[in-house]
């Protein structure tokens, strides 16, 4: 386990500082309709050489969290509080110039939407080479060679010809791969991969995941992998953070969470996911309702309007009191440890097969 914090940002009781440390992060957007509390008190750590998976339904704050790590929010409309420290350097209050030096080099992101990351006006090769030239001082020729090498690694056919294409000449899946090449070109020490393989078919998906593993093995990179696909998480991540309404609701090792999940929301996610081993006719159990508006999130436990276990907790505790995430392996829920264990064993596990 590498994540050892409370949601309230308590200090980590370990010797050396983690490579990436996020403490009590809040990200709020000013909009015409009011303040969107997209991230609401999130803390986690990540060590070099480890992969942290982040899962949660659409709108739970996964991308917003990671864009904050890279310093990519518009400061005019975004309020960010809390601490983000990368290899000892504080990022939330860092100047744009320092962040620019880190981005694309020490830390890089594979964006959810390839089109937002690629400019239509420059060739794919130029865009892949640019961070390499900027951060290593390589010549244009060396940059082009490096771009061809990266296109080869991500499985683009005829890379020495396609390097001169513009993004519109690539298919959607090829653009996604070109963007992955761009993110990996400087061997980043922190790689944030936001749904990196959703647009890709299964063979290419496996190839990209292998590439991420290679990067990690060779350079000891730390990876944050955001995904809806728990199969991908099981394959590649060490630890897992489950997010709901801008907060972490459960954390632990991937094995712990996939075999002994403790939070009713995680139970819902797992029960609604098709299983490879399952019978085609086996029914899934979608979580009732939909994620809340972050303009005015529910009081207490944000999951309470959708949770089938609030009555087990009793009184109005779930609606009134926000459950905290304890140290280490933990779930932010008012159910007692015994209740979680019994409910999981008797009601949830039989559904998961
Ligand atoms: N620039 C912005 N201005 C206002 N609200 C925003 C902005 N960016 C994101 N949000 C809101 O913040 C919330 C979290 O968004 P985020 O993109 O982090 O979700 P996500 O977990 O990545 O979802 P998905 O799985 O769909 O990618 C959403 O309610 C979203 O509408
Ligand atoms: S705190 Fe209450 S509402 Fe929230 S997940 Fe636990 S039982 Fe459900
Ligand atoms: Mg997202």
Automatic annotation (TrEMBL):
Species per Swiss-Prot/TrEMBL record: Streptomyces kasugaensis
Keyword Chloroplast appears in the UniProt entry: no
Principal subcellular localization: membrane
Descriptive protein name: ABC transporter ATP-binding protein
Membrane topology: Peripheral membrane protein
Transmembrane segment boundaries: none
Domain ABC transporter: from-to ranges: 22-270
GO CC terms: plasma membrane
